[in-house]
Every structure is written in structure tokens, then in C-alpha cells.
């Protein structure tokens, strides 16, 4: 008589991928060792960074796999909308905040892409410093370490097969194992 809506397997896949991205972004090493601000803004920055790296990786895949990236982005937007409402932001102000979220995503995606495509590691560190460590006057040791992490994350994502993503599996490197500039690791 009653038919409960079933969650599609694709929805489970998208939720699993987004969950992995958020879990990676919340790794304590980013906040304790790298110096990312352990605030809502700092956590937002790290989720954005990992989301951008993941979506960037999917660009070279077939349409069904690329669609997973859009699904993960859509879930991210729903999560942000829900978070704003939980923080007490009113219905009329939420769209303005969501516009800022979208601008942050697309602006950073373009800046990160340009820096990643370049070979100058200092350029990537400068872009990360500007977006994730805005209190620093330029690329700090923390931004340089994060740039190393980003390069390692790109390499790890590139090694993963599209079939793994379709099964909600994505992995990133352990940020604690990325040496700070000048360290031997």
C-alpha cells in the first residue's frame, strides 16, 4: 500500500564519496601540524580543497563518472545550506551565503588549477597561502607543506581507477606523512 522512496545506489555512492572527502579534510594533522585554522572557515577551506582536487580528477573520465563529481558538489551545497540554517541564518540570507560558497568554489578551483598546471611550486604555495592561510603575508612553511600534500594527493587520485569512484572509494595521502619543507621525509 505504501511505497517508501528508496535511496538510489548512486545516492549512496555520492554520499560515500562526499563522506570520504569530508573525513580527509577533517584530519587532525591539517590543524595541528600544518597550522590550518581549526575554525568553521578553516574546515570549509579544507573541504573545498579536497572537493576541488576530487572533481579535477574526474574531468578526464567518462560522462557517468564525471556526473559523480556533480553529485558530490550538489551534496556539498546541500550540506552547506543545512549548516547555515543550523547556525541560525534566516531563509532570506541563506541564498546570499550560498552564492558566496559557489564563488569560493569556482574561484579557488580556477586558481588552484592554474597553479597546479604550472611547474612552480612556489606559485601553488602562494595560492594556498592566500586562500587557506590568509593571515600570512606570503607563502609560509605551512603553505609550502600543504602544496607538497596537494601534489601528493593529485598523484594518488591519478592512480585510482574510475571503477573505485563508482563504488564510493576514494583515497588521499596521510597528511601527517608529508614532510615540512627542509625536513627529511
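-> sequence recovered:
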Amino acid at each position: 500500500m505504501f511505497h517508501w522512496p528508496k535511496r538510489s545506489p548512486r545516492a549512496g555512492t555520492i554520499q560515500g564519496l562526499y563522506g570520504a572527502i569530508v573525513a580527509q579534510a577533517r584530519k587532525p594533522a591539517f590543524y595541528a601540524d600544518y597550522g590550518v585554522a581549526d575554525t568553521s572557515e578553516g574546515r570549509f577551506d579544507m573541504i573545498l580543497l579536497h572537493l576541488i582536487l576530487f572533481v579535477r580528477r574526474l574531468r578526464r573520465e567518462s560522462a557517468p563518472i564525471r556526473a559523480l563529481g556533480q553529485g558530490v558538489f550538489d551534496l556539498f551545497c546541500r550540506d552547506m545550506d543545512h549548516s547555515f540554517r543550523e547556525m541560525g541564518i534566516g531563509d532570506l540570507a541563506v541564498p546570499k551565503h550560498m552564492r558566496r560558497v559557489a564563488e569560493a568554489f569556482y574561484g579557488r578551483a580556477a586558481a588552484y588549477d592554474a597553479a597546479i598546471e604550472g611547474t612552480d611550486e612556489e606559485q601553488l604555495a602562494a595560492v594556498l597561502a592566500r586562500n587557506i592561510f590568509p593571515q600570512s603575508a606570503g607563502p609560509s612553511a605551512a603553505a609550502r607543506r600543504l602544496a607538497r600534500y596537494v601534489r601528493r594527493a593529485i598523484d594518488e587520485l591519478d592512480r585510482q581507477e574510475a571503477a573505485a569512484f563508482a563504488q564510493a572509494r576514494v583515497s588521499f595521502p596521510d597528511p601527517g606523512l608529508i614532510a615540512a619543507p627542509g625536513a627529511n621525509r
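Helices lie at 9-25, 28-32, 40-58, 63-86, 94-117, 121-132, 141-159, 162-166.
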